[in-house]
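Trying the structure run again after the queue cleared.
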Amino acid sequence: MDNLARQCRGDTEYLTSLYKNMFASFARHPDVADLPVQVVTCMDASGSMFDLYRNGRMQRVIDKFFAFATTLSDIASMDLWAFGAKSRQFGAVTMDNVRDYTFAEAGGFERWMSMLNYQYNNEPEAMRDIMMIYGALRKPVMVLFITDGRLSSDWEIEEILIKTSRFPIYWQFVGLHGEEYGVLERLQEIDGRRSENAAFLKLDDIDDLSDSALYESLLSNLEGWLKEIQYKHILE
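Done. Tokens:
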């Protein structure tokens, strides 16, 4: 963590306060430090999200999640996916590109929306693609999955959560500036899962919670799941 903090110079100096808050929260959850956790961010890039990208709110999400991801992982980068009707993995977020990632990576968010078909959001497609890449890894993976609601298929999401509960993948759904979150608001009612592998955090804006409160919420959910999968030998 000290090495990461020392990289926050020049045009990434603004990340320092995020790391300080993350380190403080991390210290309150020592059990999370037992295993490196790879954090993957998956972002809704459907048309209804356009204003959140244009006004920089989604870039703010990247900043906060990048500090979270690179503290938990043993690598100084964060994998990123985006989805509309289709999903795609983009270049990893690193110290070199984090500052303007949503505006510059692969042509920026407007280009993302075009190539992914922004007309509707297909969460199951993105979840299946992520599972194909990370499902075979025998290490904990946390997916920070952002959507503004009006999900394309509740039953498909439920089915995927049941299937992936046998793997060390944790789905942390984050609802931003949306409504009609369907199954995400009743995750505890999904039967047939081997592990409690999902949680939902609903926000109007990413800054509705302080950085400390956001990280505390994410770490609390992750810590409980990590204890569960070790007890149930899901990593073996």
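Residues 29 and 219 are 7 Å apart (CA to CA). Worth checking whether this holds up in the mutant runs.
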